[in-house]
Amino acid sequence: MRLKLVACEAFTREACYCIVDSPHVVDPEFTKIASHNNSDELRRILQNKIDEAGSISGKYDALLLLYGLCGNATVGLFSHNLKLIIPRVHDCCSLLLGSGRRFKECFGDNLSQPFWSVGHWERSKDCQSGKLFDPWFTKTFEEYKELYGEDNARYLREMAKLANLDEKVVYIEIPETRIPGWAEKLSLKAKEEKKQVSKIEGDIRLIRGLIHGAWDEKNYLIVKPNQKTVGIYDWDKVIEAEDVR
């Protein structure tokens, strides 16, 4: 098969590693890290990539999306003439851990727990600015209320409190893309900022399965032409497809 891959640049190393020994021809393209902070804009970008790939009749057998729900950025995507394949996970952390279940095991007590990976570390503006982790609840409650409504603003405030509760940062290290010394470098940086680092071994299997064409129904959603993605928001299916009307 010839496949088009659209992925967040946080997965550049992992995606390229899997492309090398994929049995298929894979054309990759990456979007900027943290684009999910504006989910509507990321959805627009992804839809444009889908439309562009589908405009060349017969060039691709499928388009792969290396994203989770990512703040609903992948909800409402559709294609008229190309299959879309997307992992059934909520976010990039689950992709780095190999499953949503593993994410729940590791982060179930604090779903907003800050984390880093090689890709996040080398491409994040926080790293470039010299800061390990900046609090993300940076506006006033009233400003968030005006932007997103009172209920959502309250939710964001509570999640911000949880995220900074124990001053811990998790480092997810993928064995296949491990960079010697980076975990130690992160620990030193955390010490400077009076934080603790907990290292978790990641799992590349969801990324490999996507790029190698091993799309089992449990782990991947196959969106057929003239269907669109719909959020389910549970721990199992996460995302589904329905016919475009």
Please outline what is shown here.
The chain is α/β, with parallel strands linked by helices and 245 residues long. It is 37% helix and 22% strand.
Question: Could you give the topology of this structure?
Answer:
Layout: E1 2-8, H1 12-20, E2 25-31, H2 39-54, E3 62-66, E4 78-79, E5 83-87, H3 92-97, H4 100-107, E6 115-116, H5 118-123, H6 125-128, H7 141-148, H8 150-163, E7 168-173, H9 182-192, E8 196-201, H10 205-212, E9 220-223, E10 227-231, E11 239-243
Parallel strand pairs: 1-2, 1-3, 3-5, 6-7, 7-8
Antiparallel strand pairs: 4-10, 5-9, 10-11
Between the first and last Cα atoms, what is the distance in angstroms?
29 Å
Number of strands: 11
Overall tally of structural domains:
2
Secondary-structure-derived class: alpha/beta
Query: Which sequence of strands runs across the widest sheet?
Result: 2-1-3-5-9
Query: Would you identify the regions where 5 or more consecutive residues have pLDDT less than 50?
Result: none
How would you describe the shape?
A: globular
Largest sheet: 5 strands, mixed
**Strand-residue proportion:** 15-25%
The percent of residues in helical segments reads 25-40%
Structural write-up:
By secondary structure, the protein is of the alpha/beta class. The protein has two domains: 132 residues; 102 residues, no CATH class. It contains ten helices and eleven strands. The strands form three sheets. It has a five-stranded mixed β-sheet with strand order 2-1-3-5-9, with helices on both faces. The chain has a three-stranded antiparallel β-sheet with strand order 4-10-11. The chain starts with a strand and ends with a strand.
